[in-house]
Amino acid sequence: MPDILTSRFLFGPGPSNCYPEVTAALAYPVIGHLDPVFIERLENTCAGLRTVWGTSNARTLPLSATGSGGMEAAFVNTVADGDVAVIAVNGLFGERMCEVARRCGATVVRVDHDWGQPIDVERVLAAHPQPKVIAAVHAETSTGVLSDIASLGQNKGDALLIVDAVTSIGGLEVTADDWGIDVGYACTQKCLGVPPGLSPFTVSARAFERRIKDPRSWYLDIGLLGGYVGAVGGSGRTYHHTAPVSMIAGLEAGLHRILAEGLAAVQARHRAAAAALQAGLQEMGLELFAAEGHRLPSLTTVKVPDGVDSAAVRRYLLEYFSIEIGAGAGFYASSLWRIGMMGPNANAASVTLVLGALKEAIASA
Amino acid sequence: MPDILTSRFLFGPGPSNCYPEVTAALAYPVIGHLDPVFIERLENTCAGLRTVWGTSNARTLPLSATGSGGMEAAFVNTVADGDVAVIAVNGLFGERMCEVARRCGATVVRVDHDWGQPIDVERVLAAHPQPKVIAAVHAETSTGVLSDIASLGQNKGDALLIVDAVTSIGGLEVTADDWGIDVGYACTQKCLGVPPGLSPFTVSARAFERRIKDPRSWYLDIGLLGGYVGAVGGSGRTYHHTAPVSMIAGLEAGLHRILAEGLAAVQARHRAAAAALQAGLQEMGLELFAAEGHRLPSLTTVKVPDGVDSAAVRRYLLEYFSIEIGAGAGFYASSLWRIGMMGPNANAASVTLVLGALKEAIASA
């Protein structure tokens, strides 16, 4: 059995370490999914999610699946055979959107970008005259790039806008209602400081009206899930599936912690940590990958110097320091590192530790 | 915020209370989903699941979804438009199977039974000459009935057999390989004594070969998930989605606890608790619902006596004793109670407590 006392500094692309309140909440006594105490917990959680999503959408809930399940829920509820989906691709998760949408039957119009660049809003908008949906990733976990969702949303016309906020929610500004996001999905294990396993999900009234009425998926059917969280108005709560009560207790605690600190303060902490990290990496002579001006405050991508064995450095960090950083994704697997400063890790100590350890690892590995 | 110190005796249809080792494991330090320590944890978990499933299937894994997600995974990987699915319906979860299979495009041939009765194997086998799949529930959570899966599997012919083992896995005998189960799904929150959120899932080599090669669901695609758990042979582990690491730590601990006690001993404990409970209920003058000889050792259904307010009794139990028991399901919502003695709750103290409390509640509510 693995050493259960092993503790890691999780400075990769996620999961990040948890807030201590979250760890405690995971170990609360289990309660029934129909217990009044749990119903209140679920309502608190949905209310907290509305705040971090910047929305008043009634249908804002923690899906009982990971972020990739949230991506599938976004498409299966909005596109069916032959519906046109324009998808901005500037990294691995835009790629994945194309595959998920294709399986839902969509005619996918992909708008490719160089990895490391933000999406080109005009090109995405011009890709098709009347798409059913337009989809984009706010914060690309594979490249460390932030894209301008507000411009996309304000000019989307009749289309529904699907947004992946996996690496932004809770740590970066996301204002779904102002930006015109119709369907948003995220995950718990990055800036929210909660383990992986749930997908914070939000659906606008406009998207709900235009949803696929009999989607291929029963598990992710937002029509049924609205009942699960009691968002169907007068008719009350209906049983759908057994809620993952412990993970929801953890998410409630994470949201409570973040909102007690203040969303603006948490976001400022993420920005400050990223600025210090990015400056420190450049001072070490390393080159950042993501286009300047579009770098994420949650996850930094850095080029592996010529002649350095990327995997050996990561192994050294793990073995000598118990520090995890990420490899690159896809084509960049061995030529990039991804360093996340998310949730409780977005602080000065993490930055100093990872810079010092990385310097030593590059010299020694 | 709900009172986080609230503790419940969870004697409903699930979730049950957790084994203490599970509670501790949920609060372990989070580790990365690609960390060698986690890979070992996942492998241990899959090995433990093979034991409780009674299978050597390489593709035996904890799906990152609840039991209902496991049901969806079973159908989306085995049936596509026009494939015939014969489904035995003797309760709510057989009903749900029909709906999930229909959404996957299957032509559903349902074989209805009275609720409270086990499935009639001959009738199910005679329902269609050449179905692609036959599906049945081993232990119906809605009615408390056990059905004979071995007879079904041994006579299934060319069909693939899908089995719901949600309320049996870990607490009752399930031997997937001997019984001829091709695709099995379960949940964590009943006899395994782990919170809800994962679905123990197993797929035979035969079913894997005949799977839908490009299923509608990317998230639940067993072809991709085989890579996620490294079951694809020489090509090694491939990234699919971020594993829910904390829930998997909990499941590993639950399986470890059960296998240390011994699967036979755990099953005997469930049988003994159910026998005492069922005898005690009848001594109180209450009538059991499930057909005699087919009653579950995990979950007992009992008729609400004439003139007794079912909901008031449940409320009394919750408020005065912090005991949860379940209402009936569907048509029987207010005429049945469902009493589970599962996981750590399958013991003499739970039986004595629930019998005493129920007696008082019926007299007082």
Core attributes:
Aspartate Aminotransferase, domain 1, globular, 15% strand, Aspartate Aminotransferase, domain 2, homodimer, 7-stranded mixed sheet, 3-stranded antiparallel sheet, alpha/beta
Question: In short, what is this structure?
Answer:
Chain A has 365 residues and is of the alpha/beta class. Chain A contains 13 helices and 14 strands. A seven-stranded mixed β-sheet of chain A has the order 2-10-9-8-5-3-4, sandwiched between helices.
Please, could you describe this protein's structure?
The structure is a homodimer of 365-residue chains. The first copy, chain A, is built from 13 helices and 14 strands. Chain A has a seven-stranded mixed sheet with strand order 2-10-9-8-5-3-4, with helices on both faces. Chain A has a three-stranded antiparallel sheet with strand order 11-14-13, with helices on one face. Chain A has a two-stranded parallel ribbon with strand order 1-12. Chain A starts with 8 loop residues before the first strand and ends with a helix. In chain A, 62% of the residues are buried. In chain A, helix 1 (20-26) packs antiparallel against helix 10. The first copy, chain A, has 365 residues and is of the alpha/beta class. Chain A folds into two domains: 9-15 and 263-364, Alpha-Beta Complex (Aspartate Aminotransferase, domain 1); 20-260, 3-Layer(aba) Sandwich (Aspartate Aminotransferase, domain 2). Chains A and B meet through helix 1, helix 2, helix 3, helix 4 and helix 10 of A and helix 1, helix 2, helix 3, helix 4 and helix 10 of B.
